[in-house]
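Hey, quick one: can you model this chain's 3D structure?
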Amino acid sequence: MPRMYVLVRRDLDSQYRNVQGGHALALFALEHPDLFKTWNNETLIYLGVSNLITLRAWAEKIKVPFSLFKEPDLDGQETALACYCDDHMFRELSLA
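Sure thing. Here's the predicted structure for all 96 residues.
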């Protein structure tokens, strides 16, 4: 069963992580409105990745539609991504 996954960088402050994840989710809604409607505000899971390099590696690996948020206050660094997919892709990650 597909779920909405949000990957956030653990090298960011915990409060900042939540905000960045929210931005990634909002960006997903804008970029993929049909998938966002299909999700219908059901299961949402925040997962943590260690840093920017790891987040970028995940962005390269994902083969389904996703949205990658870049924070202007951090010189456009990627901080979080949102993806609506089956859970098998992110089994190795733990909660954020």
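One thing worth noting: The mean pLDDT is 96.
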